[in-house]
Amino acid sequence: MTDKREEQAMKPFREQNYYDILEISPDALPLEIRRAYKKAFALYQDDSIASYSFFSEEERQEILARIEQAYLTLINPESRSAYDSTLIASGLLEEERTFRDNSREPITIYDLQKTRRDSPSPARRTDELKTLAARDPLIRDLLARETLGGDDLERIRTVLQVPLEEIAEKTNVRIETLQAIETGSLDLLPPLVYLKGFLRSYCRCLELDEQLVLEAYLKRIGLH
Description:
The protein has 224 residues and is mainly alpha-helical. Helices cover 67% and strands 0% of the residues. It folds into two domains: 4-104, Helix Hairpins (Orthogonal Bundle), CATH 1.10.287; 118-220, 434 Repressor (Amino-terminal Domain). The protein has helices spanning 4-10, 18-22, 30-43, 49-54, 57-75, 77-89, 109-118, 122-135, 137-143, 150-160, 164-171, 175-183, 192-206, 210-220.
């Protein structure tokens, strides 16, 4: 018996829909779409084994173009909705399986008041982060080191329970750039002058010592 991924692989690439191409479900979250796009794009890059082993250059370029089109269509709420409608009309997708962006749905006055009551104010949030960073032994240990890697920053952020999407929204730094910082992907990092600014913004969101983290991180990647 073949699973869904094997069935997709057997189907000619041109016949696969955008969800098949990125190997995600129709109700995938935007973050899942970004991750799937990055994974699929890497698979067919110039230095990929798959590129040399199975596809001609013309086929590889066509696949990359399809991956790009799939990503651009699905990451945009309006174009994704229109695309889903065509799949539904063609009998290729059940409406119940489509993604629903609950953040766009209207909320009642009760829910709005409850959200405002339950959500900490910016000042309270700042104090909570500072207190947790000062008291948590793992964070204290990491910040006491001479160097800090991207994985260390991710561990600190995880302990502080701050989603990467929240940092991206607050700083206007692309989430792919923040991911590159946390994974230490040197080839994906921006020029040093921008990297320093992004790291400072990252630290502000976590209420960390900007200069300490900046120097330790740059020292780890050999840029200090």
